[in-house]
Design brief:
238 residues, alpha+beta, archaeoglobus fulgidus dsm 4304 fold, 9-stranded mixed sheet, DNA-binding
DNA sequence: GCGACAG
DNA sequence: ATCTTGTCGC
């Protein structure tokens, strides 16, 4: 893994320092396909207590085998965030916990879907790109709403319908309809694959649901980890 | 300067 | 992100 930018996390960076790091990571981000045989795919997501932005972050990385779709046990990790929630800097808050969860996986996935933006970010450095570059792994950003840019045209009502998302003249994401119900999701490059490949995988893994299976599994696993931590710290339990 | 703003 | 129950529809 690429440790270069991890050094910056020994101390919480200032916003200015974080911005500089984002530019470096964006420069290292690869937007062409560089993935091998994809036999294991994982989703990454985090969960935290309501209205407690300084409380622990519970991260989960949930793998499945492809194309068998066999679900493997999710790895989880809990970290106290050293960074507040600031739109545009989500990676500095969530990536450390996700990377810790990733370390817990014995068999590493070939592809990682991350809940959040990839290159569809003001500095082309969303959390999916940040995690992808640090791990040097192919990643896809799966977001439920937009951070920047706008949809060009209409998305169409059927699964597979799509429209480009453009920011400052650049196509940074695809608004993709994955389910007849609910709004489109926003698929972007994380690292080491093309936008078209990212959209292909997002659609293939959604199977009529709004979110790709690995993202749903990671969401569930992160929530389970948070609830387990809450119940194990009950007064009666010690 | 003002508004918008992933999770 | 998170709280929460039922309810409507395929």
């Amino acid at each position: 893994m690429n440790d270069r930018h991890n050094l910056h996390w020994l101390e919480p960076p200032s916003l200015a320092a974080a911005t500089k790091i984002q530019h470096e990571i964006a420069a290292a981000c690869e937007t062409k396909d560089r993935l091998g045989v994809v036999g294991r795919i994982a989703g990454a997501d985090v969960s935290m207590k309501w209205r407690d932005s300084r409380g622990p972050i519970h991260a989960a990385v949930a793998p499945i085998l492809w194309p068998e779709r066999r679900i493997e046990p999710a790895a989880t990790a809990t970290r106290i965030p050293r960074f507040p929630y600031v739109p545009g800097y989500l990676g500095f808050r969530e990536a450390p916990a996700v990377l810790a969860a990733w370390e817990g996986l014995v068999d590493k996935p070939d592809l990682l879907l991350v809940d959040g933006q990839g290159r569809s970010h003001p500095r082309r450095c969303g959390v999916a790109t940040q995690i992808g570059v640090l791990l040097d792994m192919p990643t896809i950003g799966i977001a439920k709403s937009l951070l920047c840019g706008s949809i060009e045209g209409e998305v169409g009502p059927r699964a597979g319908d799509r429209a480009p998302v453009v920011h400052r003249g650049e196509e940074v994401a695809i608004a993709l309809r994955t389910s007849p119900r609910g709004g489109p999701i926003f698929v972007s490059i994380g690292h080491r694959l093309s936008l078209e490949t990212a959209v292909d995988w997002a659609l293939r893994l959604s199977e009529g649901r709004r979110l790709p299976l690995p993202i749903r599994l990671a969401h569930d696993a992160a929530n389970a980890a948070r609830r387990a931590a809450a119940s194990s710290s009950l007064p009666s339990e010690g």
